Structure prediction request, 78 residues.
Amino acid sequence: MRKILSNLKIGEKGLIDEINIDEIPLKLLEMGCLPGNSIQLIQIAPFGDPYYFNINDSHVAIRKETANEIFVTTENTI
Prediction:
């Protein structure tokens, strides 16, 4: 199932499928926020921004507006 990164639930994992390269800071790309890499939502800050992710064993904080520009593919759990 394809989702926007900001729509993941805590603990949910996926693979980065597509990114809007013009809206993603270079630092995130350097830290592994690239298509094909695994990602898991660890925590959401109390006011809903930022989101904390584990990307290939690196912990990264991503703002909600940036997370809206990243698409992931998750397993369909039925």
Observations:
- The beta strands are 2-4, 13-19, 38-44, 51-55, 58-62, 70-73.
- The longest helix spans residues 26-30.
- The chain is about 10% helix and 40% strand.
- The helical segments are 26-30, 64-67.
